[in-house]
Amino acid sequence: MSLIGYLSTLVDHISTYKVRRISAQVTLLALVIFCVIFTPKTTLAEPLKITLAAEDGWPPFANEFGSGISHNLINQAFKQVDVDVSTIIVPYTRGLIMTERGSVDGVFNVTREESTIDRFVFGNEPLFTVTASFFFAKEHPTMANNKWLLPSRSIIGIVNGYEYGDEFNTLVEQRKLQVITVNSQRQLINLLLVGRIDTAIMFDLVADVYIQQMGVEDDITAKFINHKSEIFVAFSKLNPQAERLSKLLDEGLLTLQKQGKYHQLLQPEND
């Protein structure tokens, strides 16, 4: 082969190599772009968003301003499992109805008992446990030292829609109690003060807030316990994700306990 022929062949070989190399680089670049565009962005997925009804008259757990222990605890628990919570502030009974109808995903501060277990979906981990007691006006004391010894036909006040334990209906029947229903614990305190009712069942911590606000610490007192309630978020049975949400909340609450944050969130000063 002549020198000129050899050089020509060498140039052709180098040119072909460059073309193939550039072609391979272009193909690789196109493949990378395709993967970026069409690969699901699982790492950038938005958190699950839910709406809960929160009652407006149960301080220090939930008040009319959308704050309280329950708000803090529920928001932080769901935050651990990447769930964003928005709330609608409504009266308690309305929140129950909205949840049953599927208008919201769930409702705050519900006792899991016979009257609610078939209406809603509950998790396994309660938000917290509260005590409800029988309160009396000091001007109208009682000789009874437990609820089963209440005088027959006593007039008892309760809040509409609240749960008072599985024994309540039996108590009313056995002691032939006359039940008056109102919309708030504040109203119950007023009825006690004016002697319209003999006793009222109120949740202790909630009653303490209202008694202090009303300046009647020396006039109203708790005498004996009605029941203890484990308080939950109740999820709508019409929501196909209700079981999943209840398990996520359980997971979030357990995570807060492991982190040592749970008991801090139960303090009223976090309100």
TrEMBL record:
UniProt superkingdom: Bacteria
Gene3D superfamilies on file: Periplasmic binding protein-like II
Family under the similarity heading: Belongs to the bacterial solute-binding protein 3 family.
Protein name: Amino acid ABC transporter substrate-binding protein
Organism this protein belongs to: Shewanella polaris
